[in-house]
Automatic annotation (TrEMBL):
<dbReference type="Pfam" id="PF00196">
    <property type="entry name" value="GerE"/>
</dbReference>
<dbReference type="InterPro" id="IPR036388">
    <property type="entry name" value="WH-like_DNA-bd_sf"/>
</dbReference>
<dbReference type="InterPro" id="IPR000792">
    <property type="entry name" value="Tscrpt_reg_LuxR_C"/>
</dbReference>
<dbReference type="GO" id="GO:0003677">
    <property type="term" value="F:DNA binding"/>
</dbReference>
<dbReference type="GO" id="GO:0006355">
    <property type="term" value="P:regulation of DNA-templated transcription"/>
</dbReference>
<feature type="domain" description="HTH luxR-type">
    <location>
        <begin position="143"/>
        <end position="200"/>
    </location>
</feature>
<dbReference type="InterPro" id="IPR016032">
    <property type="entry name" value="Sig_transdc_resp-reg_C-effctor"/>
</dbReference>
<protein>
    <recommendedName>
        <fullName>HTH luxR-type domain-containing protein</fullName>
    </recommendedName>
</protein>
Amino acid sequence: MEFVEVLSGRCDTLRRIDRFCETTKLVSGILSNGSRAGVCDPALLESMLFSPGRRRLVVDSRLAGGELVRHHEKARQTEIRVYGGVLRHMLVFDARYAVVPLDELSLHAGALVLRPPLVGPCGQFFGVLWSESRPLGGGPGRGACLKGRQRQVADLLVEGATDHQVANRLGLSSRTVRTIVSELHDRFGTTSRMALGFRLGRVTKRV
């Protein structure tokens, strides 16, 4: 099986995205309006908001207003966060496929379809952006101060300790450490150890 497939043009790309959306339980998408007004394809936005399954979207501040907010009120199972920096389109489907447009903001030039093992880094990158973004219409997100055991575990994870090493140093069971790590994933909205470590590093430096 080839790890990379090239899709030619907007129509082929949208058809493949729709097909993936219909068979995917979780879609993780990065969408941007960039510096050009209206550059986010309306058909792409509709697929991301109203397709079956659960969806998590990271969007830039330009896309976060107006039309997206109105659509979001009708879109169930869709979580949206806003990232303050520069973004480019990227979609990850159940960690099985990733779609990356050849043009950083448009579908007209076509796209690349990536398969494992190339999908993994895309999912990790999305996790980092997700943890660094704020909820649409909300405050600064989940990065509140850590206290007690969560703070102790977080400090050791940032140092690169494994769950087993954390358990030994804190006198906890491995099961307790895994539970705390799971709580940290939930708190920061991360799905990979890399994304969690990045997010914890930012938080522990500030506290």
